[in-house]
């Protein structure tokens, strides 16, 4: 068998069709998130996404035949990123106090790190007046919510404590409100102070739930 020459080992691997497709999809999703954050849902048209992503309209519609399918994929993509952030933050935390602190720190990061959180808020608000978007995104959001509630509560094989579900809903509502306030131009330091007020209450309640006998 002939050994490969040193020069051949330095040649870059040729991109496959799968590589090119993945790169195109990533460009489309990145452009969509940016437009949602800066222009809002109504202005984030297929044509504008195509232009911003520097992808032909035909290529875009090959991957995402409708605007609603682009939006559902943005939600799914962000949910995976959010799950990774929580897993990384909570993986080494042993005590309830450490887990709750890590969870709340991650919640704050979701609002302040990058445009994705506000983009998802734009999509969720638009579902009220777009039946096609509602139909495509409803199952995605339901799966995301069920997974995150069970995983964060630590009750992956059984229904979580109803108080945990209620408190998590309040936290989600607060985060969405903070994202909207940030979009309105409220300084992040002001939002941070407000979040800290909520954090103290939320931490106490989460730990009270964790201390309840199973």
UniProtKB/TrEMBL annotation:
GO molecular function terms noted in the UniProt entry: DNA-binding transcription factor activity; transcription cis-regulatory region binding
InterPro entries membership: Homeodomain-like_sf, HTH-type_TetR-like_transc_reg, HTH_TetR
Taxonomic superkingdom: Bacteria
DNA-binding region listed in the record: 45-64
Keywords, sorted A to Z: DNA-binding, Transcription, Transcription regulation
Keyword Transcription listed: yes
Annotated HTH tetR-type domain residues: 22-82
Protein name: TetR/AcrR family transcriptional regulator
Organism name: Gluconobacter thailandicus
């Amino acid at each position: 068998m002939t050994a490969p020459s040193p020069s051949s080992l330095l040649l870059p691997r040729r991109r496959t069709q799968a590589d090119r497709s993945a790169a195109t999809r990533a460009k489309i999703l990145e452009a969509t998130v940016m437009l949602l954050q800066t222009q809002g849902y109504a202005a984030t048209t297929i044509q504008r996404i195509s232009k911003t992503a520097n992808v032909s309209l035909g290529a875009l519609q090959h991957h995402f035949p409708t605007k609603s399918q682009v939006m559902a994929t943005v939600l799914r993509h962000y949910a995976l990123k959010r799950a990774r952030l929580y897993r990384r933050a909570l993986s080494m935390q042993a005590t309830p106090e450490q887990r709750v602190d890590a969870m709340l720190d991650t919640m704050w990061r979701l609002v302040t790190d990058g445009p994705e959180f506000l983009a998802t808020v734009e999509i969720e608000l638009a579902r009220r007046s777009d039946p096609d978007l509602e139909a495509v995104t409803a199952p995605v959001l339901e799966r995301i919510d069920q997974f995150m509630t069970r995983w964060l509560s630590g009750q992956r094989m059984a229904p979580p404590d109803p108080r945990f579900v209620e408190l998590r809903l309040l936290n989600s509502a607060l985060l969405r409100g903070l994202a909207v306030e940030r979009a309105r131009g409220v300084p992040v330091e002001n939002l941070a102070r407000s979040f800290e007020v909520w954090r103290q209450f939320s931490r106490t309640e989460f730990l009270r739930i964790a201390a309840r006998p199973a």
